[in-house]
Write a structure and sequence with these properties.
- By secondary structure, the chain is α/β, with parallel strands linked by helices.
- The protein has two domains: 128 residues, Dna Topoisomerase Vi A Subunit, Chain: A, domain 2 (3-Layer(aba) Sandwich), CATH 3.40.1360; 58 residues, no CATH class.
- It contains nine helices and seven strands, in the order ββαββαβαβαβααααα.
- It has a four-stranded parallel β-sheet, with helices on both faces.
């Protein structure tokens, strides 16, 4: 599995699931058009773009291009790259009928098509085996030690930390872990949580 440095932005959870099976990266979903009214998520995307860079990977239909264009306008000229999938007519396996425009979305693409789209967009592919040897990332064990996962009131403690760090409240424990690893080092995490 190839590791990508940039954060990948997709439209929905099915897109996220497919891309996560192919690419080792932080993947954020827009939840379709809902992202435009979610100030917390837009602020998070702006922070992630500044810190790591974003790759917007949306469907090739009009809705996908609308989301792509609005995000570009809302986020400005930050470190944003655009990955485009080809126009392919078809029907995704989970659907009963084709989309309005009859095109396959990100979730319907073959793995090699997604990797090629990311490559053409200028994704930074990293050697994941080398990264794992020198990995100083925040881990689930660190989250547990800080009382942020697997403990009584861990959800409350996560919410408190998210408010303090000005992060969206709707992040899951795994989502928070991904974001923390982009924005902070393990040492910074230990200092801010008072663990170890």
């Amino acid at each position: 599995m190839k590791r990508v440095k940039e954060v990948i932005v997709v439209e929905g959870r099915y897109d996220k699931n497919i891309v996560a099976q192919i690419i080792d990266a932080t993947i954020i979903e827009t939840s379709g058009f809902r992202v435009f009214s979610d100030r917390e998520k837009i602020a998070l995307l702006r922070r992630l773009a500044e810190k790591r860079g974003l790759i917007i990977l949306t469907d090739s239909d009009s809705a996908g291009f609308f989301i792509r264009g609005r995000l570009k306008g809302m986020l400005g000229a930050l470190n944003i790259k655009h990955a485009y999938i080809p126009d392919i007519d078809g029907l995704e396996r989970r659907k009963q009928s084709p989309s309005k425009e009859g095109k396959l979305g990100v979730e319907g693409m073959k793995p090699e098509v997604i990797v090629e789209a990311l490559s053409r967009a200028g994704a930074t592919f990293e050697d994941s085996s080398q990264d794992k040897k020198n990995d100083t990332r925040i881990t689930k064990t660190d989250m547990y030690s800080a009382g942020l996962a697997g403990c009584p009131d861990s959800a409350g403690k996560r919410l408190e930390l998210q408010k303090r760090l000005d992060l969206p409240r709707r992040l899951s424990a795994n989502g928070l872990l991904d974001v923390l690893n982009i924005l902070y080092t393990r040492d910074e995490f230990i200092k801010m949580t008072g663990t170890y």
